[in-house]
Amino acid sequence: xxxxxxxxxxEVFQDVQLQAVEASxxxxxxxxxxxxxxxxxxxxxxxxxxxxEVKDGKRGVVEEAFVLFLDEIWxxxxxxxxxxxxxxxxxxxxxxxxxEFLRRTSNxxxxxxxxxxxxxxxxxxxxDATKAEDRxxxxxxxxxxxIVVNRLEYIEGELETQLKATMLKRLNDKLTSVxxxxxxGLKNLxxxxxxxxDEVTQELRKLMVSDPSKDVRKAALLNLTVSKKLxxxxxxxIRDASEDVRYAAxxxxxxxxxxxxxxxxxxxxxxxxxxxxxxxxxxxxxEQMVLKKWFPECDSSPVLLLKALDIEQxxxxxxxxxxxxxxxxxxxxxxxxxxxxxxxxxxxxMMSQNSDAFNAExxxxxxxxxxxxxxxDNDPDKAAALVPNVSGFSxxxxxxxxxxxxxxxxAQQLLEFGHLLDFQDEFGRRNLxxxxxxxxREIDTDSQLIKGIMELMAFVYSGSSEQEFIQVVxxxxxxxxxxxxxxxxxxxxxxxEDSEVSSSQQDTSTxxxxxxxxxxxxxxxxxxxxxxxAEAKFEELEKHLxxxxxxxxxxxxxxxxxxxxxxxxxxxxxxxxxxxxxxVAQLLKLTSHNLSDPIVDGxxxxxxxxxxSDVPALxxxxxxxxxxxxxxxKRLAERYLIVFWRALNNPEEESEVKHTCVxxxxxxxxxxxxxxxxxxxxxxxxxxxxxxxxxxxxxxxTESQETSKEGDKxxxxxxDNSGDKDKAEDEDMEKDDEAEPVVGVEKLDLDxxxxxxxxxxxxxxxxxxxxxxxxxxRLFMMNRIDNITVxxxxxxxxxxxxxxxxxxxxxxxxxxxxxxxxxxxxPAFVMATSANCMLLEExxxxxxxxxxxxxxxxxxxxxxxxxxxxxxxxxxxxNEQEEVAAIQTSRKKRAKKPERRRCAHHNRIGITICLExxxxxxxxxxxxxxxxxxxxxxxxxLKMIAWxxxxxxxxxxxxxxxxxxxxxxxxxxxxxxGLLRSAEAVLKRTSASYSEQSTxxxxxxxxxxxxDQSWAHDLVKEREEVLHKxxxxxxxxxxxxxxxxxxxxxxxxxxxARYVSSGSSDSSDSESDEEGDEEPDTAxxxxxxxxxxxxxxxxxxxxxxxxxxxxxxxxALQADDADEEDEEEWDDEDSESESEGDDESDxxxxxxxxxxxxxxx
Length: 1161
Description:
Residues 579-922 form the Nuclear condensin complex subunit 3 C-terminal domain. The chain has 53 helices and four strands. By secondary structure, the protein is mostly helical. Among the domains are: 1-189, Leucine-rich Repeat Variant (Alpha Horseshoe); 298-387, no CATH class; 391-464, no CATH class; 786-902, no CATH class; 904-1048, no CATH class; 1104-1135 and 1154-1161, no CATH class. A hairpin with a 3-residue loop joins β1 (55-56) and β2.
């Protein structure tokens, strides 16, 4: 009987495997209903066999039959595990079959007796199989175990603990496939909801973030149970390098996270990354997340979806989502849209029927609809039904722009909407232009609307004449600026009045003057005391605002009070001048005319006076306009470049002004080649009254001389020495006309400006840093700059430890924009031309030398020279570049084969490193040079030279490099065996590579090598002199640091010894007290008594001990004070001895201190 049912059991397993091989439906749908249906007959047969042969109704199970049944099932599974070749469908079928047989839905479900023991025993054997040394067996065991475990809906607590422990170990397996199967097995064993520190969840999170295999990261991401705590880690994966991981991230977020649980900033980040991903399937996954998940959650309403995305803060994201929805509507049949509950949105009809529908989201989607049907879908009928007439639009625009600031976004959208109108209606066109001119003239119009108004005016006039647009705008600017000039003249006239005028008359004249001005809000004139009090109050509120919670009741109250004070302090003249400069800036951006147009040329009368203003806002606007003005003519750019340079170097200047100066300088460098900046200074002439000497040597006109004076004024404000001198001379000239000024021209090197900009990269302002880095990257790629110092600064910035720490700027895992730019720039720069490779080589040489000249080599701000050298050597190794070029040319049938770049960048950089080593070794032998200072530099150089690969494309440099390495191994590192072994290893590798590539040397090569050797020794002497000065100072600083450390150690040892002695005396006293207390311990009758007398004695004894302890502490503190006084006297003596320069006595004192320290130890 036993043999018969065991044969039946084997037949069941054979049928399952045979059916899997024939149908192969297991892999196509391994977890679907069809897959489970194919296993139902086999599971029934096995359950019947277990019920008939193993189960005993009264006693549970038959022991012998149970053991035999278990062995037979395990034998069938083990055959699959250890077979040489097994199809995946067979393993999947067997594992699924066993999982269905052992399945238990809950702890209360009824099942055959003995199933629990059978399940426990089979799973234990599978867990043991996962520890097999054979890779195939270990992988199959993990695969089978995860399938069986995922089939079990209920797992006992003890078994669950064992499964976790087993699979967690497999997460660290060296096989990628084993780690993946273990991840799938742990999917249902995590519980982050009840336990936030769930071990399984944390391990899966770690793999998702840091595993080198993209398949492991993807598996961890798909099987991780998403919670609010793990959501941020999941969000970072949408920027993963692998397309599959990014696709899985969007699918997981779309299925696991409802829209309301995702913060608004994260929603914008998700769409910004997903909708413009370079992979089409990733973009499609993001689109499906919006259409299938987010849009239905917003009741299939475009307005509600845009409201959930906060389009006022993220308008670009709103445009992408709106066009995605409109594309979806146009592609789907109308009946299907109505079935899904989606109704086409007509914002114009809704706003005409309901005034409450006039909100930011409705206007935004209305504009997007019109743009989509006009420009993308090319459906004129739908566009005509949505676009209003020009007259009605003008009324709506004026009413919105004059409203409060809460509809500012709506006004901006309407201004953009104006580009979609039909301007065939001449009456409506004129009404719109008149309305726009009035908005420009009104000072109450918000500054953020000026750009939109000017762009709409330029668009309307583009159909007729640009010259008319320029004239109209010039009239508006002139009408607004003229009252400012009149007011300034009145003020200057009032200052020249007689001092006998009464204060009441002065007040009256001031009021009349203010009333006569027709621009801006009519603000009351504040006295000096009131203005100072208001400014002090404003600063106090500004400091208080930083301590309050954002958007709280008190925060809003303080902010409203600050706005009222700011309005009180505003000067109407300044407001009008700022509005003029805003309009001028937009005109210079929108016009295509140059300085040949007299109206455009006349804009300088509004710009130049603002540069010399004491108001930072005016100065910033003036510099911005001057930068735009200089882009119209190269001579202007050369003349005024010094203005931006001086303002940039002024330490008292505002950061916004400096940012404007940087952008203007870079724009001029982009626009013009071979810029030659000038500094216009003034010199006293020997002959008075000579008008010809007042002219510019280059023949500048009167306006150029006026602008040069404005530049000098700006220079004087920036605090430059030459500017101060010029200012003093100008004042002397104004006081007495004894001499006339001569305008002289001084050259300003453009490389000096670029190096100065490069030094600003290290500032804490991340925006300014990224602006400079982006500008330099563009200039290098445009071949406008070839300064190796600037390139070295960019290279140092890329490996800056400070910048590496701020890679993650927010919860989205953003990297620094500067690092992103440089990571793209350097490979593209090297691939462009061979001259660029030479520039990078020279920049690396410069960086190596400057790094050796730094005083501190082991500080936190020091860049990793080893990593920098590895990256540079990788870029300058052209093997990979040749492979890429070969692939590209192979795609073109008739293309020429790419020429191999023959270069010796590695050789020359290696020579530079060797020269630095030899110079350091000679400096180390000199007096007063500390060995630690030298060793730190030698270690850095050895790390760099390890990445140098010698090449015989240039035999002279290769031979010299090998010779210098031999010199290093024979003459350097006498006391540093570890460094010597590293140098010998480099020499051995270099010699082997040299021998493989070399041929027999000729006499000419030998002679050339001798010349190169003498040249190298001369360079070593030069570097020796430079490094000696640096290392002298570095050694002195290091000696001070060592002395300070030694004094601190001695003071700490004295304190420890004193506390130990006091502690030992306390312990001895306590021991004596305990010995004294031993006598009453021998009399139990006395100890049992509790009288008032015994309490009094105990309290008095405690007070006595406290007094003794306080006395000891006081004595110890006094001794510490005495030690500190001694140390201060010691410091004074050291400083005096150092100032006298007695190096020998210092060395003797140091030796004596070391001997004392050794004795103390």
